[in-house]
């Protein structure tokens, strides 16, 4: 059931439309003039407005312009005679979504209204999502002074790159290990861009099956497949005028890659099961923890799509490469979660900070946040101590200033050396951007030896060709 406002100075037509829409189950308010209709809308917004174009006093164009200025999400349909279609087009330029030509049947009116109500529901949904996003970003900004926390040189360099990239409309590919904060980078790109007042829409590509992913991205028409009982707008349409974040882009199947490439090239989509081509104005930001160049060489990712996504590459450093940021991050998470989980806790003791900085954080910033939240649950004092942390952190042996762990019976020297070698190779490989000859040069070893170690530690698949990426 929707709330619909009908504005028409012709009594018979106004009452006829009101009766038709009321019988369809809607709540209808009828207004005799444009002035009365605008006044009614300003008191209580409606899901849809149907207004005649030619009226004494305030006409349909003025009604549309006034309502759109009052409420940007207002959905207005104008009613026009056959000979004034050009004027109806002017109304659409002022913000009307569609027009209906007199005379029309009740079925045509109902179909047009249903289409308008679908658009209205979508706009309200986007408004709510944007409001929630802005609230979350505002909370984070108040707690940390920004979306990305860290004063280390790698983070300061990244923030500078993000600000420069945000000012453009270029497609961005964010790379980094799981838990490093790739979605935060995408949100920051949106927040500092000219599109900041538009929607920010997220698609978690790895969480959706192939058939569902295509429908989520591009939408579908009613009857397109079993279960498609009504038309659904895709994320590209929902993100129109804003930013679309495609998380874990490396997981999308080949069939969707082909369609995504076309959207990036042509800036238009087709819903699943539909024939209509729709233009979209969307800035795409994608993210992955995979080496997409290696995926291209293995034939699992389209090379042309990779270059479309890779216009501006951004690399997020893992937490182990910026341990100096751990104290700031830990305090940030205490502030963020403390009021909700444990209001008594105001900070961290030095013993807790030492324990946190001794750990390698394979789960990166996300793991650190989870640890702080878990510790807050059980803490009884006003500050977090090492004893409040999970056992695998509070019982870590001390390490030297160089960060080398002390060998134990459970973890002998050969295991530690292998772990250190793996970490050093990982850092060099990331710094070289996945270029293997450059990685070998940084490590001071032969390329053949590097390939053996990359296979050994799972950076590449066994049998990958020895060409450079």
UniProtKB/TrEMBL annotation:
GO terms for molecular function: ATP binding; sequence-specific DNA binding. GO terms for biological process: phosphorelay signal transduction system; regulation of DNA-templated transcription. The keyword Transcription regulation applies. Residues 3-117 form the Response regulatory domain. Gene3D superfamilies: 1.10.8.60, 3.40.50.2300, Homeodomain-like, P-loop containing nucleotide triphosphate hydrolases. Residues 148-377 form the Sigma-54 factor interaction domain. The keyword Phosphoprotein applies. Pfam families: AAA_lid_14, HTH_8, Response_reg, Sigma54_activat. This is Response regulator of zinc sigma-54-dependent two-component system. It comes from Cystobacter fuscus (strain ATCC 25194 / DSM 2262 / NBRC 100088 / M29).
